[in-house]
């Protein structure tokens, strides 16, 4: 017989599965682990709009660093 904790874990997995499907449809590029972390942060009081803004900023910075690291070196 499953315990109450097992039921909660299963329900949490189902929620993350549903959120992941929505994430795929919305093309967010968040995996299940990232979604789980976002949900946890929001459940602990983080503003969802602020979290989304931080994720967007981090992606922009990451793309910028990747462009810089892939740029050909210039000879001085």
TrEMBL record:
Entry annotated with the keyword Cytoplasm: yes
Highest taxon in the source lineage: Eukaryota
First-listed, main subcellular location of the protein, grouped into a coarse class: cytoplasm
Organism the protein comes from: Penicillium canariense
Keyword terms: Cytoplasm, Cytoskeleton
Protein name as catalogued: Mitotic-spindle organizing protein 1
Pfam families named among the record's database cross-references: MOZART1 (PF12554)
Sequence similarity: Belongs to the MOZART1 family.
Task performed by this protein: Required for gamma-tubulin complex recruitment to the microtubule organizing center (MTOC).
Subunit structure, as described in the record: Part of the gamma-tubulin complex.
A GO CC term attached to the entry: mitotic spindle pole body
GO BP annotations, alphabetical order: gamma-tubulin complex localization; microtubule nucleation by interphase microtubule organizing center; mitotic spindle assembly
Subcellular location: Cytoplasm, Cytoskeleton, Microtubule organizing center, Spindle pole body
């Amino acid at each position: 017989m499953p315990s109450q904790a097992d039921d909660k874990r299963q329900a949490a997995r189902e929620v993350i599965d549903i959120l992941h499907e929505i994430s795929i449809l919305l093309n967010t590029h968040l995996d299940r682990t990232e979604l789980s972390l976002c949900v946890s942060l929001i459940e602990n009081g983080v503003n969802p709009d602020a979290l989304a803004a931080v994720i967007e900023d981090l992606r922009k910075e990451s793309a910028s660093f990747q462009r810089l690291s892939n740029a050909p070196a210039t000879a001085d």
